[in-house]
């Protein structure tokens, strides 16, 4: 759907988190970059998603809906949401994300809030990384440098996707928890997605 971009800096981390067995748990994740420059098919899908959002806005104005829809009146905000949705659709092509509901699950974040989630959920993975790399650089440091190279973190907007169980494709695969983060650079028209989840190895 969106053009996948290859970067060696991301590949090292991506290979590490793709399927990391930690004994009782397995971390599964991906770290990938995409161009936001639309192809012809992208434009059609983007137009369709925007119509879905606008239709939802119209219905919300006619109801007592309390969902946080104010920023969807801004075209730039809708465009950002569509880029994030297109990225999700690329990662999970078999899953149907609702554009009308997606705004309820995306939140703008800072690097500090991202780091807090990273430190808690990837604590054991980070220790494994240090073992495999002789303690030279931490997983977070390597990730930071890779992201900065690809999307220039100082210019980025960071978003998280925190859906209900029904809207999270990882839970269909038996995940205990999951996280999705997007690093979006408007100037470069580029987004990097980092998603990682934890699956129990004790469940048959």
Summarize, please:
With 204 residues, this protein is an alpha+beta fold. The protein has helices spanning 8-17, 40-61, 75-91, 99-102, 111-121, 123-132, 139-151; strands at 3-5, 20-21, 25-35, 106-109, 157-161, 175-185, 190-200.
Describe this structure in words.
The protein is an alpha+beta fold and 204 residues long. It has one domain (3-200): 3-Layer(aba) Sandwich (Protein Transport Mog1p, Chain A). The chain has 7 helices and 7 strands, in the order βαββαααβαααβββ. The protein has helices at residues 8-17, 40-61, 75-91, 99-102, 111-121, 123-132, 139-151, and strands at 3-5, 20-21, 25-35, 106-109, 157-161, 175-185, 190-200. Strands 1, 2, 3, 4, 5, 6 and 7 form a 7-stranded antiparallel sheet that branches. Strand 2 and strand 3 (25-35) form a beta hairpin. Helix 2 (40-61) packs across helix 3. It is globular. Mean pLDDT is 83; it is low at 62-68. This is Repressor of RNA polymerase III transcription. InterPro entries: Maf1, Maf1_sf. One of its GO terms (molecular function) is RNA polymerase III core binding.
CATH topology, which one?
Protein Transport Mog1p, Chain A
The Cα radius of gyration reads 18 Å
Number of strands: 7
Strand content: 15-25%
GO molecular function, one term: RNA polymerase III core binding
Pfam families: Maf1 (PF09174)
Protein name: Repressor of RNA polymerase III transcription
GO biological process, one term: negative regulation of transcription by RNA polymerase III
């Amino acid at each position: 759907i969106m053009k996948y971009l290859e970067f060696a800096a991301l590949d090292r981390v991506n290979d590490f988190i793709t399927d990391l067995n930690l004994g009782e748990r397995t971390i599964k994740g991906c770290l990938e970059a995409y161009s936001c420059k639309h192809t012809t098919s992208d434009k059609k899908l983007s137009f369709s998603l925007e119509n879905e959002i606008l239709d939802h806005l119209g219905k919300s104005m006619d109801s007592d809906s309390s969902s946080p829809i104010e920023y969807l009146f801004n075209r730039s905000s809708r465009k950002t949401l569509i880029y994030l949705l297109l990225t999700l659709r690329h990662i999970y092509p078999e899953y149907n994300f609702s554009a009308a509901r997606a705004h309820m699950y995306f939140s703008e974040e800072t690097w500090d809030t991202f780091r807090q989630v990273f430190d808690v959920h990837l604590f054991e993975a980070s220790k494994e990384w240090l073992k495999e790399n002789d303690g030279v650089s931490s997983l977070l440091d390597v990730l930071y440098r890779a992201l900065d190279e690809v999307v220039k973190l100082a210019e980025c907007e960071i978003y998280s996707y925190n859906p209900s169980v029904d809207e999270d494709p990882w839970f269909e695969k038996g995940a205990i928890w999951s996280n999705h983060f997007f690093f979006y650079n408007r100037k470069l028209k580029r987004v990097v997605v980092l998603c990682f989840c934890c699956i129990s190895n004790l469940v048959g």
